[in-house]
Specification:
By secondary structure, the chain is mainly alpha-helical. It has helices at 5-25, 27-36, 41-61, 71-88, 93-113, 123-142, 145-154, 158-181.
Amino acid sequence: MNLKLSTLAILLGLGTALPQIYGLMKPAAFASAVRGFPRSIPWGCALMLLGTGWFLYNLSQESISDFAAYKNVLFAGFAAVGIASCIYVQDFLAVRGLAVVLMLLAKLMVDTGRPHLPETPLVLVIQTWAYVLVICGIWFTISPWRLRSLLEWGTANETRITVGCGVRLLFGLFVAVLGLTKF
């Protein structure tokens, strides 16, 4: 996937910042929506299918000759696992789907930022964020109930919601401004 670093930074920044405005304006509704996310089947299916499709796209772009003979089998197997997960592994499916998408997003962030590392050290903001997403993706895949616990803690009272949304809003705007000015 060819994406300019500036475009990626703007999309990531706004994608992070915009939901936080809702959290600052309607903390109770935000908390309710966030707490319902980990066990949401619709979100789970959407994220798992998005992750499966994105992974299959990445696989189609690979030119590994060792697996060329098995590429179609791999495609069918990975597609079957992604679809079967939506049917048979519905417990914390949203968290598992989010974990897959986070790791694929991190790959995109690292691949997009790598060529720009000599240009500005601010690329390390995107790169570091990507590695944090990888760690979160691995952690939430292994123990998806941890995200539920983290979300419950973060939405336990209005102060936590306001502070959390404020910090994420500022970070998202910072990344978007980097995309507009530095990248």
